[in-house]
Amino acid sequence: xxxxxxxxxxxxxxAALAAGAALALCPSGMPRRVLRLACGLLMAxxxxxxxxxxxxxxxxxxxAAYRQMAQEAVLRGEEAVSAGSRSIIEQECAxxxxxxxxxxxxxxxxxxxxxxxxxxxxxYPAEIxxxxxxxxxxxxxxxxxxxxxxxxxxxxxx
Amino acid sequence: MRxxxxxxxxxxxxxxxxxxxxxxxxxxxxxxxxxxxAAPEAVSDALGELxxxxxLESGLERLLDYGADKLxxxxxxAAGSAARLVAIALLTSLxxxxxxxxxxxxxxxxxxxxxxxxxxxDMNGFAQLGAETLHSLSDFSKALLPSMxxxxxxxxxxTAAAARCAAxxxxxxxxxxxxxRLVLPMLQLCLAVGVAEAALGEDGFPKxxxxxxxxxxxxLLTALVLGFTGYLAVTGAVAGTxxxxxxxxxxxxxxxxxxxxxxxxxxxxxxxxxxxxxxxxGVGVFGLLAVAAICLAPVLRLGLQYLLLKLAGGLCAVAxxxxxxxxxxxxxxxxxxxxxxVGAGAAMLFVSLIMGLQAVTGL
Lengths: 158, 363
What we know:
Chain A is α+β, with helices and mostly antiparallel strands. Chain A has helices spanning about 1-25, 30-45, 50-55, 55-105, 140-150; strands at about 110-115, 125-130, 155. Chain A is rod-shaped, with a radius of gyration of 39 Å. Chains A and B meet through α1, α3, α4 and β2 of A and α1, α5, α6, α7 and α8 of B.
């Protein structure tokens, strides 16, 4: 920054000196008025010259980099929600099966639900593993198929 | 009805570990640990122990205490500079009164030189302070903006969150570049021109140069802040509509395709959105407090210096040394511009965070 400031200051001083010298040498009248206008324009250009020095190409790359950073952050958030959603759905579906098993008088030792990602963009219960001492319960199996949408082919009883 | 309540209660109890794991996943996605580590020293000095508990009131109380302490230091330093200028003006006026012939002109020049030497070191320090504050804000924003974007995206506003994060990062970068390449050099030039005007007197220097420079600085900062706010408002409206449409489509699909599981899916989504909402509030409130903590000491220093230099300018003119008075007033104006520069950077981050906190989600 200091180097850029020094360079800009030198350019301003040089332009001011050149303008001052030119005005001092110029005869009065119309030529002096025209020269005064030209010197004013010169000073304005030199004053705003740092704008022209900006590397605009870098800003396109910077914008792309910031968009990439934003997209990565958003993706992390969405992935966390997806993973959390899957976990909660599996837990709640298992809780539902435990509750229904108790209603039907079916003793269970373990219930594990596995969710899958649907084409509609949501997790849904796709498979279930049950460990029942008395073996497969047709009533419970039918309830699971009807209420949770898990077909009997995807129900693993042990 | 009783069975439904028992079922929901059982779901809540059995799903609690899953929700806790979900919250941990959200915090990891938002990189909350990295955010706390990225906070500069000024934030821990002001707020003490850093956390994302979202308690705005206690944070503001700690900020006020910190500000009160810094105010005393800033007032003492600002009063010292102003007092030096007033003393120089009094001595210059006295010496000018006693001098004869062409000596008063040189006495006036000596007064201006003495005033410049007395304050110019402080002014360079203020320019450095302004630049360092902006760079601190920029460095902290690189951790804050992605955290806020991740938390907001988790609530269903993915498009708006990404647009806001990218736009804020870009405009803060533009402000830093404008400050380093244009505003700070122009302010240095304002100081030099102010000294030249005071030394050469009213008729010895072209009028209006400092006015043009100040106008350029003000116009540039105003354009950046207004452009940023307008860009955020437009992209936020468009992106927010897209997010709402996507969420409405998802709701309809859940409700019709999976009747019993639909309730479970909605409960899960609601629980996660609630958790993400808490996280977003925590990150947003921490961000607001941290940005305020970074800017508080510089703003107090520059603000008090601006006020006291303007007051000193008036007092110097009353004391009979109008040149020193004009110089003091010019220095005060430069402090005011630096205050505006720091304020512009803080305003951009405040606007982005507040819009993120107020973003309405579809869920």
